[in-house]
Write the structure tokens for this entry.
Amino acid sequence: MKKRISLIAALLLVLASCQKKQEPIEITSEEYHASVDKVIEIMIHDIFSPPVASRIFAYPNIAAYEIIAKNNDTYKSLAGQVTGLESIPDPKNDENINYEMASLIAQMELSKRLIFSEEKMESFRDSLYMVWTKKNEATFNASKEYGLEVANFIGEWMDKDNYKETRTMPKFSVDSDDPSRWQPTPPAYMNGIEPHWEKIRPFAIDSAQQFKPIPPPEFSMEKDSDFYKEVMEVYEVRKDMIGKGDKSDEIAIAQFWDCNPYVSVTRGHLMFATKKITPGAHWIGIAKIASRKTDADFAKTVYAYTKTSIAIADAFISCWDEKYRSNLIRPETVINEYIDDSWEPVLQTPPFPEYTSGHSVVSGAAAIALTDIFGDNFAFDDDTEVAYGLPVRSYASFNQASDEAALSRMYGGIHYRAAIEVGIKQGRDLGKFVVDKLDMTKG
């Protein structure tokens, strides 16, 4: 009798265990936010340049979005709309597939391939895998299989974007005989980064040259020239800020939108780096803020990240095309040589040519994409920089935030006015093209 009771108890335990593994699994937008945050955390650790970082956002989000669009009544595939992208494969058997789970798995897998510290992404991924397996092993296995299949498919498309080829192209050659040309700046005097980024295959724009801006003012230190006036404006703005002290709003704005992923700090004979997010990562953070504020579900969250990251990635391709065409010298170099050899900008000058302002172009494009998703006059509190000891700043709209981001480059002492004003227009024109071209929603 005791053996029979023990056998029944054992069978009940087995049945309970099986039932436990058949729990429905809900994948929330917060899990997607957490994955994107983990990628940003790793990107900061690994120190990716702003253009490369934009690529790391775009492909995983597209992979996730394509899976959502495969099984959703609201969203359309990007196949045939984004350059070279074909329809992802249909699942072999969708009986047990959780499409949100497959979407997140694809995002994590492609992100892992694009960063250096893969083990950090694997640790985050495995913590989710463990929970999902315990809840419903059949659903997890089917979803994982499909998510990885799509990740491989998007990965093959990704590998044809010319990125790998640009890794072996020549370094940027500095022309020291031309006074208008960009020169490496202190304290690290780094080489110009990503001089071949215009060769990367665009996502939505037709070519890197499609939104080619007007040329910058011609280099001249004649006092009546437009260029000289712009140099002096940067110089005088910095002097005015010194007069106001370290607590001025201009300095606060410059620091909030700094977004330099690698700032070299010198202490005596010691040089070390402080790490921050890139401009693209800041706007990806704003996409998260807007998604949370509107209680966006999983699908809309992925949609918001995807459209925004495509606009950001194309903005970098467009901007970098102009940077290495005009190849314009930075304010710090000009002011130190011709006006005041002790002058220093508020922000550390980034290691690439001046025109147009990358943050202006990217901010303009991202703001247009986010406005298209969440609407105009969308007020939000931007806490993206709190992790770096900076307070929350509030905005009445995405465009207002982008205007401030662009102007921050003047306050920071790293851009002339033309690069800011032409750059924000370049970005907004590009952003409008992206949102008009990409037909991502049904009805």
